[in-house]
């Protein structure tokens, strides 16, 4: 008797969509950081004659770009994991994959440490 694998495929798809939401959230947050940095630069240029000085270091652009790049990497890795899992489910040889989870966790921890250091230096 052949087992119906529809629920396994649907669970795989839901997992991919969760990774997709995570990557879009990271890219969105990075985009907001970059745009906010541009906004602060424009405001300081408009108010140059009033001698308003923006004393923060210029890491907002870099941080935003890193977040967007991390979102793209997570999206690519999650798609590759989705395809690999789909193939394993079809062949009935599924074994758990912890490499994607470990990679994304390390990326997020590194970015979090960078953001904490950035915010701590700007207090």
TrEMBL record:
What does the UniProt entry say about where the protein is found? Cell membrane
Whether Cell membrane counts among this entry's keywords is yes
Per the record, the domain of life is Bacteria
One GO term of the cellular component aspect?
Answer: plasma membrane
Q: What is this protein called?
A: Putative membrane protein
**Could you tell me the keywords of this UniProt record?**
Cell membrane, Membrane, Transmembrane, Transmembrane helix
Q: Does the keyword Transmembrane helix apply?
A: yes
Per UniProt, residues of the DUF202 domain are 8-87
């Amino acid at each position: 008797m052949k087992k119906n694998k529809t629920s396994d495929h649907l669970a795989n798809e839901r997992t991919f969509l969760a990774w997709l939401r995570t990557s879009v959230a990271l890219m969105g947050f990075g985009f907001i950081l970059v745009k906010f940095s541009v906004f602060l630069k424009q405001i300081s240029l408009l108010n140059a004659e009033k001698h308003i000085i923006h004393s923060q270091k210029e890491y907002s652009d870099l941080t935003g770009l890193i977040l967007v790049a991390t979102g793209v990497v997570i999206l690519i890795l999650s798609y590759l994991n989705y395809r690999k899992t789909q193939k394993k489910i079809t062949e009935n040889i599924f074994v758990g994959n912890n490499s994607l989870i470990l990679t994304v966790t390390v990326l997020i921890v590194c970015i979090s440490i960078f953001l904490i250091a950035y915010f701590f230096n700007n207090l």
